[in-house]
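To assess whether the prediction recovers the assembly geometry, we first specified each molecular entity separately, as shown.
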Amino acid sequence: MSKIIASAAIRGSHRVFRQTEELLQKVIAEKGEDHHFEFPDTAYHLPMIYAITGFEVKTLKDMKEALRMTQDLLHDEPDDRLWSPYLGEALDSGMATLFAEEIWLALRYIEGLEPAKDPETGYVYNGFITDTIQRNLGIQLVDGRMPGFAAIIGAAPDDDTAVKIVRELQQKNILVFLSGNVKGESVTKQLLRKKVELGWDVYVVPLGPDTEHTLYALDWAIRASLIFGGMSGGDFKGNLRYTKERVFAYALVLGELDDVKWATGAGAINLGFPAICDTDVPVIHPTGVCTYEEVEKELDHDKIVQRAIEVRGLKVLVEKPPIPIAYGPAFEGERIRKEETFIEFGGTKSAAFEWCRLREAEEVEDGKIEIVGENWKERYEQGGTMPLGIVVDVTGRKMQADFLPIIERRLHHNINEGQGIWHMGQRDIPWIRISHSAKQAGFSLEDIAKIHHAMTHKRFSSIVDKVQVTLYTEEEDVIRLRDEARADWKARDERLAALTDETVDTFYSCLLCQSFAPSHVCVITPERLGLCGAYNWLDTKAAYEIDPTGGNQPIAKGELIDTRYGRYTGVDEYLKQASGGAVETLNLYTIMENPMTSCGCFECILAIIPEANGVMIVQRGHTGMTPIGMKFSTLAGTVGGGVQTPGFMGIGVNFITSRKFLAGDGGIKRVVWMTKALKERVREGFQRAAAEAGVPDLLDKVADETICEDSEKLLEYLTEVGHPALEMEPMI
Amino acid sequence: MADKTIKSADRVAEEIIEWAEGHGLETAFDRAERLHPCPIGHSGACCKICFMGPCRLVGPDAEEKAAGVCGATLPVVSARNFLRMVAAGTAAHSDHARDMAFTLLEAATGEAPDFKIKDEVKLRKLAGILDIPTDGKTKEIIAKEVAEKIISQFGQQKGELAFIRRAPKKRQEVWRKWGLVPRGIDREVAEAMHRTNMGVDQDPENLMMAALKVSLADGWGGCMFSTDITDILFGTPRPRRSQASIGIMKEDEVNVVVHGHEPTLAEMVVEAAQEKEMLDYAKQKGAKGINLVGMCCTANEVLMRHGIPTAGGFLNQELAVMTGLAEAVMVDVQCIMPAIAQAAKKFHTKIITTSHKGKMIDAVHVQYDEHRAKEVARQVLRLAIDNFANRTAEGSRVHETTPVIAGFSHEYIDYMQGGRFRASFRPLNDAIMAGRIRGVAGIVGCNNPRIAQDSIHDYLAEEFIKNDVLVVSTGCGAAACAKAGFMTPETALEKAGPGLREVCEAIGIPPILHLGACVDNSRILTVATHMVNEGGLGDDISDLPAVGIAPEWMSEKALAIGCYFVASGMYVIFGSESPVEASETVKHIKRNVWEERVGGKLEFVADPDEILKKSLEHIDKKRDALKLRKYEPGRFGVERKLMSMADRRKLEAIAKPHEIK
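The predicted structure of the complete assembly is given in tokenized form:
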């Protein structure tokens, strides 16, 4: 019964508390109370303690204070008979455990013991999850590619069961965190022995060997609330309601439990995350703290993944084409090395292309798969390399030529999501590898066509009625059709370039992130793509056709009432309703007044540098300092969560070179600092835009981190190179 | 033995009653048997408001034909009597609350130095509700302002009673619509007395609506003020383990019974009894220690906050004396039988009255004074200790006790469902929605010697939990359940239905929760409001699958409580006969007119099986109205909503019920 769990959790909390107290004393003795600490690349201090209490732990002295606060949450074990209630007390003890674990792990970082390294295999665990990784995952968290999160704690009864459970989770696109052990054995070790690929790319992330390392996953979950939910530190009600309702995480506890596991589990239940165990443990079924059961058991390893998903209330829609290998976004990041490759197409090895064509209804026979070429079967069976031209013909009553690039862009994902097959590039530069293991599983050349047929239907069901796929394997055919395709692509690109905010009467919203950032609304126009960089105007237009009640909705732009700043009556009306009243009005072309809000998944942050009379741009993942004295992670904290912050804005990379980029503030000439990596990435477009603005050598006048990381030096540099921003009208 | 009438379901009490009978000592149980109630007054047909009467409104077709000298008809007389009783009950609780408010004020100013502010969090919360700014203020200054504001509420002449705003929004609208919002407390009581004075209000409907109005000044006024101030001064209760039974009297210690309602002096006695000087003094007088024993609602107060054992409710007071072990029974106000001073004459027990409002012939009076409260407490203790030597072998010595877990303040009920960070009523609401818990019953109120003591309390409590109905209890009802051993977590495992049992096991609670004294029925109002605000069970207290029952009532205070629950939207059942039994018109008003207007109604049902049946029917009816899962014992579960990404984007709307409105 529950009392057994509560008692164990309370005992466990005392144990973790003592262990932390001892380590803290030791580290203070070594380093002194004023020793400073932060987890790698986070703006949220010790995130759990910060989210729940608002206390910013920055030094060992702060840790001492935080541990004192933790002590207040400890309780006595319930009596054997005539016990007092224990649920609230056990949950408090659970939270105390998380606080203590967070401090303990921080101390281990100071001691150089984290990320943990496996002494036998030398495997280095992930350790603390950075803000950058969290933001990188933004879109996957909201578009269904990553619908849920499983923390597997402990070890499966044998290696094969471990692989089976993890594979099943991967196929359901569930991100898996691994931690803890049972008498030294762990799922991480079991997977390593079976040579299963681990890491973020394949959705399987080993955090550390002990139960305490599970805290890293919980730190990640609670930060979703701070980063995307716009909640503040100390608003424990808001933060914990967010994790309960929006972060679909749960624990799969494999093997025997000890007190620390129960205590950590009690902590996780505070966040609304249930535990599903494969051993005969007591269960807690009444709901309310979690959405459904708090603790459940499922002894059958064939059923445990499904059971866990139900207990967390998670709907997983798996779209799998009829092929002999596993399929899902979790396999997208899988690498296939040269020696694992059975056959490859394109890259530098052979001619290849992939092209999507719009056809009349009578020209397409749905499901028809044709492979053109002499002896293609034998050549495939031999392995090595082969030319490959992929033509996907589609037709549909609601199909438009504008949607072709979108369907075409998905061809990459279609292939890459297969286990044991790999894809990169697009149009005339694709590169496909099929591994020996996929081949052994029975993967044939036809299966490439089958994937495209099935997935194009599944992803675009409401605009595509029929799909046929033709594969060309003769070099001559491939080259001939590739040239034909190139002409088509050129025409498409020109049409796209001609699309402006003025030439359309409808913009689109992107509400995908509202599952995570409830008050944020992206407004996407032909000249301003989504801040995540993943959705442009055409994407959203197609998405609306595909699912008229989905995450992208049309916005009749209405009347332009502020030409300079880009304020439209239709946009304002829409925003008020879609943001639940959080945002009243929006100016599309300025950073200074009612700028666009952010969910937290922005590719870049644009921030004003008042003394330079311009703006700087820093991209996600840049960990260095910037001239406004804040790193990306800190800046990001001020921009996310669906709040308008004049002077700060999250944007997609490609917006930098748009004609509407800060059009109301003076345009691209305002850019005074951007990172070197970003400069390289946008060079071509930037130079075009700069030339249009009359300063063709602007990019050279823009400073980067190799020139300066503070505003004083920046100003010196700008003066020296004669940056135009200095001469422009004051921004403020 | 076969034809022997059981007088009490409390086995220890029954033993003492039998002993008393055997020794020629009379108790309330005997007097009740001997003294039949006057049927005319009992049914509300006697008018003694003026000296033209008393008039008896009886005879064939009395409803239409009978009239008093002034012409008052039976419905008028009956409604007028009823309103007077409710006004008296309101006056009692509220006067108690007033004393508490003045104690808070003097604790804040330092004039009553023995009292401190123990729960600052609650003080600040209360200040927030009363619109008193707290920033930068010390707790003493806040306490002073809170006390002054509350004191002003008693005499407030216009506007609305402040705590009305704590009720669900929809409920407030109902009250405003029907003109039921009290302007103050004293004004409503005074007006009720005026209206029922000779020749004023002669309309039964108007009178009965006035009863609801004055009762609201009790529930959302006096009672709630008292509960909150008491928590601030003496700590908000959390569960404690203790014992319940008259058997808790100790042979080798000085037994001091604290009896009555206001906890101020009793709190001081609790503190003084732990002082070394007092303990040494007791030893010097040959006792091993000082054994404090609670009685009636003072017992509930000190049980909830200190784990002081309870000797039981109202009907145990004479029996406590008859154990021969009580050195002193200290009393203050309400529910104190003058019979104890007479019973004490046969024993060494000293009855000590302490309030100028409540003196008694043959008792010792030690005037309580909050300015030197601890000293008064010591004086009482010394009197008791000095009396230890006078103890004889006389008396019914029983030492059987029952364990109890008590102390469920609404703050703790909130906490116990999720801890410090996830405290909420979501689990309780979820459990009701899923059918794990069928509904909630409040079993409260008095004991009445015309009914075998505790028998209906115990019967209903046991039946309700068997039927997966969570029981909350206060006052003598709580004492009954405690003595019966129902308020232990083990009871959930042994007696509760499968769904309720699962919830109790998850939290670690008894299936019957002790919420405190009768004045703490305000806690039930707060719990009900929390349930409404949590979402999923309608938007008003009247939507909840819940009932309130006072099966063994006798006091006017019980009627005031019953009425404020009705006015708050609850179905209320009182046991025994109706005090307005004589008038069909008045019965119709309290059953139908009230239900139509405020969603609650009051019925008097003598048969316990009928009470149970009506309660469960009502709970199921409310469940149906809420379109909840049909209750089936042992079958529960939630409709799982598996969330897709699209569902998650629509979450705000789905999440609404979780918000505190």
